Amino acid sequence: MVKAWYLNTDEVLKNQKNAGLTDKCVTLDQLRDIGVEYFHFDSENYENNHDYKQLRTSRGYTYNDLITITRKLLPNYDAKVKSFFEEHIHTDEEIRYILDGSGYFDVRDKKDRWIRIEIVKNDLLILPAGIYHRFTLDHKDYIKVQRLFVGEPVWTPHNRPADNMQERQKYVSQFGILA
Ligand code: KMT
Ligand code: NI
């Protein structure tokens, strides 16, 4: 089950277990309120899981691939890990299904505070287009994720500030973002 909490400072160190852990827990309802959706499917036999298949069909997630983020396996590891942790948005949803390992997604709340979301095996997280976010591994330095997409994938990150982008403005007005 996903856990989420407010970070105690803006500048937390990466690769620390529960880095920035506070007692200010964030609920799934609070995440939904900023457009972040969470699902849970057993990753052992997910290809045959009815609910997983249903999610993909209903939302049009036709594309999928795998990415394993760990120093030994990911080409250009240092640069990629660095860019994942730069605050950015995308023009489309970011859909990540965790098949193994763990990590953290940080997302901004309506008042521009960081919420840290712990993601572990079996979690499927959907970030809406236009939400400012970043990703980091934890101290285990290993995550294996399935990336899903509607049609031909576009992974381009647009680093903050990207406030003039159409998708950002759409997100801000749809979810009543104050910042
Ligand atoms: C992104 O755009 O933030 C990422 O793809 C992060 C790596 S996938 C867990
Ligand atoms: Ni991203």
TrEMBL record:
Binding annotation for Fe(2+): 88, 90, 94, 133
GO biological process, one term: L-methionine salvage from methylthioadenosine
CDD domains: cupin_ARD
Keywords assigned by UniProt, alphabetized: Amino-acid biosynthesis, Cytoplasm, Dioxygenase, Iron, Metal-binding, Methionine biosynthesis, Nickel, Nucleus, Oxidoreductase
Pathway in which this enzyme or protein is active: Amino-acid biosynthesis; L-methionine biosynthesis via salvage pathway; L-methionine from S-methyl-5-thio-alpha-D-ribose 1-phosphate: step 5/6
PANTHER family hit by this protein: ACIREDUCTONE DIOXYGENASE
Top EC class, one word: oxidoreductase
Membrane topology: Peripheral membrane protein
GO molecular function, one term: nickel cation binding
GO cellular component, one term: plasma membrane
Catalytic activity: 1,2-dihydroxy-5-(methylsulfanyl)pent-1-en-3-one + O2 = 4-methylsulfanyl-2-oxobutanoate + formate + 2 H(+); 1,2-dihydroxy-5-(methylsulfanyl)pent-1-en-3-one + O2 = 3-(methylsulfanyl)propanoate + CO + formate + 2 H(+)
Pfam families, per the entry: ARD
Chief location bin: membrane
Cofactor(s) in the UniProt record: Fe(2+); Ni(2+)
UniProt-recorded name of the protein: Acireductone dioxygenase
Keyword Translocase: no
Keyword match Nucleus: yes
Annotated binding of Ni(2+), by residue: 88, 90, 94, 133
Function statement: Catalyzes 2 different reactions between oxygen and the acireductone 1,2-dihydroxy-3-keto-5-methylthiopentene (DHK-MTPene) depending upon the metal bound in the active site. Fe-containing acireductone dioxygenase (Fe-ARD) produces formate and 2-keto-4-methylthiobutyrate (KMTB), the alpha-ketoacid precursor of methionine in the methionine recycle pathway. Ni-containing acireductone dioxygenase (Ni-ARD) produces methylthiopropionate, carbon monoxide and formate, and does not lie on the methionine recycle pathway.
Localization annotation: Cell membrane; Cytoplasm; Nucleus
Record-linked InterPro entries: ARD, ARD_euk, RmlC-like_jellyroll, RmlC_Cupin_sf
Gene: Adi1
Cofactor note: Binds either 1 Fe or Ni cation per monomer. Iron-binding promotes an acireductone dioxygenase reaction producing 2-keto-4-methylthiobutyrate, while nickel-binding promotes an acireductone dioxygenase reaction producing 3-(methylsulfanyl)propanoate.
EC number: 1.13.11.54, 1.13.11.53
Family membership: Belongs to the acireductone dioxygenase (ARD) family.
